[in-house]
C-alpha cells in the first residue's frame, strides 16, 4: 500500500460491511463482533455495530432478493485508514476477507478480497483521502457564506433567560425528548438488573475456580453502577425522571435476571446479558444520530465498556470450559 494519508484533524467514517447471506444470525453476529474487536485497537473517534440489516436488490427479472449483513461504522482520522486495512489484513483469514467490503465517505467500495491487489487498494485509499480533503476544504470555504450566521451574544442571553425552566434542553435540541427519556429509562433498568445479577454471582460463586472469577463479577457490578448513574443524570438533564421503581424493573430491562446455580451458568448468563446490552446500545446510538449529541456520546462510552465486558465473559467461559475439559 503506497497511498499516503494527510495528517489532518478531520474525522471520516468508514463502513465495514460483512455479507451475511445464508449465514445464521448467531454466526453473523459472531463474525461482526470479531471484526469490531480487531478494529477497536485502532485510534478512533467512535465505533458502532448494526447487525442483520436487510438489503433488497432487484435482479434482471425485477424480483427482489433480500440479503443480510453486519455493518460496523468506525469514525477515525484519514491518516489511520491505511492502518485499518493492515489490521483487517492481518487479523482475518482470506475466506473471511472475501465476505467483507469497505465503503468510504465518497461511496467508493473496496472488497477485502482485493487486498493483495495493490493498485486497487491504492485507488480506493486515494479516493477516500481525497474526498476527505475536498470535504474539509469545502467546509472551510463555506464558513460565513452559505452557513446561517451565529446567534449574537445578546440573543443567546435572552433565550437562556426566557426558557430558564428547560435547564440543559435548548432550542437546538431536535430529538423527541420524551422518547429519549423513555429509552434511557430502559437502558437504566438494564444496568440495574446487571448490577443485581453480577452482585448475586459475586456472593454466590463457589468452587475451585470461583476465586479467579469473582473479581470480574464485582468489577462489572461497579461499572454497571457507574453506567446507571450517568444514565440517571442525563435523564434529569432532559427534564425527565429516572425510574428506580423496583416494580416493573424486569419488564423495563432488555436483559433478564435468570437464576444460575453453577459458575459456568453464571458466566453464560452474564455473557448473554452483555451481548444484549451491546446490541441495544448500538441501536440507540444509530437511532439518536445527530439529534442528541450529548446522549449519543454517553451511550458510545458506555457501549465501549459493555463490549469489553462481553469479551471478558467470553474469555472466562473459554478458560473455564478448558479447565473442565481437562478435569
What does the model show?
- By secondary structure, the chain is of the alpha+beta class.
- The protein is built from ten helices and five strands, in the order βαββααββααααααα.
- It has helices at residues 25-39, 81-91, 94-97, 118-142, 153-162, 177-204, 210-237, 249-252, 263-288, 293-326, and strands at 12-19, 46-58, 64-76, 100-103, 109-111.
- A hairpin with a 5-residue loop joins strand 2 and strand 3.
- The chain is flat, with a radius of gyration of 23 Å.
Question: What is the N-to-C succession of helices and strands?
Answer: EHEEHHEEHHHHHHH
Look at the structure and name the CATH superfamily of the largest domain: Ferritin, core subunit, four-helix bundle
For the largest beta sheet, what order do the strands appear in spatially? 2-3-1-4-5
Which regions have little confidence, pLDDT < 50, spanning 5+ residues? 1-9, 52-66, 133-147
Q: What is the typical, i.e. mean, pLDDT?
A: 77
**CATH architecture group name of the largest domain:** Up-down Bundle
**Helicity level:** 55-70%
